[in-house]
Specification:
Layout: E1 20-25, E2 28-37, E3 41-45, E4 56-61, E5 70-79, E6 84-89, H1 93-117
Antiparallel strand pairs: 1-2, 1-4, 2-3, 3-6, 4-5, 5-6
């Protein structure tokens, strides 16, 4: 939170890219929907299994149709009403580039779809 303005600030913009995600839990696997994502972290909604802050999970997300799923390690920073948010950990340079490229490609595809659907 910015102490001067009282507003929450983020280091990076979060992109809303709705798609299913899968994540590991102690005794199996959970499913959720991606709410938003940035190069630093993620927020998911409609999680089938809750995760507590401080826990770690392996998240599998396919950012756009036809793309290979990305396997990302996440440390949960907070619970939300229907899911959780977390920061990526152990993100090496190659995976960070894949993540950024995936976000950019998915965002570009959504903009292209919006342009096609726009009224004349």
């Amino acid at each position: 939170m910015n102490s001067d303005t009282g507003k929450t600030t983020r280091a990076r913009f979060r992109f809303k890219l709705p798609c299913p995600v899968y994540y590991s839990v102690d005794d199996g696997r959970g499913q959720a929907h991606l709410f938003d994502i940035s190069p630093d972290g993620v927020r998911v909604a409609e999680a089938s299994r809750p995760l507590a802050p401080g826990s770690r999970t392996r998240l599998s997300v396919q950012l756009s149709e036809g793309a290979d799923p990305l396997e990302l390690e996440v440390e949960v920073t907070r619970q939300t009403e229907t899911g959780f948010a977390g920061c990526f950990v152990n993100l090496d340079k190659q995976l960070a580039h894949q993540l950024w490229d995936g976000i950019a490609a998915a965002a570009k595809a959504r903009l292209s779809d919006a342009a096609v659907d726009a009224p004349d």
